[in-house]
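Intended use. Records like the one below are meant for learning the mapping from a protein sequence to its folded structure. Do not use them to infer anything beyond what is encoded.
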Amino acid sequence: MELIKTLDFLRNLGDTLMFVHDMVSIATRGELREEILKQRMVIAKEVMSNPKFYMPDVTKRQLSKNIKYFTEKMKELNRAQIDSYHLPLLNQGLVMICTIFEIFLNHVLLVVMINKPETLIGISSEKNLSVEKIVELKTYDKIMEGLRMKVIEHFSRQGIKEKIKVFKNLGIDDKKIFDFSRFAVEIRERLSGYNLEKLDEIFQKRHDIVHKNILPVQNFGELEEVKEFFEKIILNLSIIVSSKFEIMFDMQAIAKGIPVST
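Structure written out for the chain above:
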C-alpha cells in the first residue's frame, strides 16, 4: 500500500519557514547591512567620480559638487534597498510554502488513485488517454500509470478552489478540511475565519508575487500564520482520506511500528 507522506510535507513546511527566518535575520543585521552598503558604494564612487559621467564643459568646482551630490543620493538609494531586503525573502517564502502545499495535494490525489483505482472513473473523464497512447503503453499497469499522470497533470494546472473541488468530487466533505476542532483551543482561536476563501486569498497573494512583482507579505508573523494554516489542512486531509479510503499516512504507520521510508 502506498502511504500518504504527511510527515515529509510537515517537515518541508517547517524547514522552509526556518530557512526564511534565518535569511531574514541575516539580512536585517545592522553590521551586515553596513558591510553590503560599503561594498556597493565602492562601485558607486568609481562611477560617480568618472568625469565622463558628466557634461564635458562642467567646471572642476561643479564637478566636485556633482560627485558629492550623486554619491550621497546613491548611498541613500542603496541603503533603502538594503533595508528592504527582508521583503523579497518573506514573499519568496510564501511562494515556496504555497508550492509545498500544492505538491502535497498532488501527492494525496496520486496516492488515492494508486490505492483505489476506481476513483479514476469519477475524475478522469475529460483527461482520458487516446487510443494511440493506450496501444503504445501496452500493459495494464502502464495504462493506469498513464491515466494517473494525465489526471495529475491537469490537476496541477487548476486553481486552488478547483483542486479542493476535486477532493469534494471524491466524496470528501470540503468543510471538514477546514474544521480545526480536533486541535487545541488556542490553535482554533488563531485559525478562526481560516477557510476556503482565506486559502484562495493566500494563493492570490502568491500569484501577485510571481506575476505582478507585488510584495504583499510585510512581516514574518504573516508567514507563520500561513504555515500553521497549511499544516493543519495537511493533517486534516491526511486523516480524512485515511478514514474514507482506508489508506494509511506515515504517522499512523510509525505508530503501528511499520517501517516508513523518508
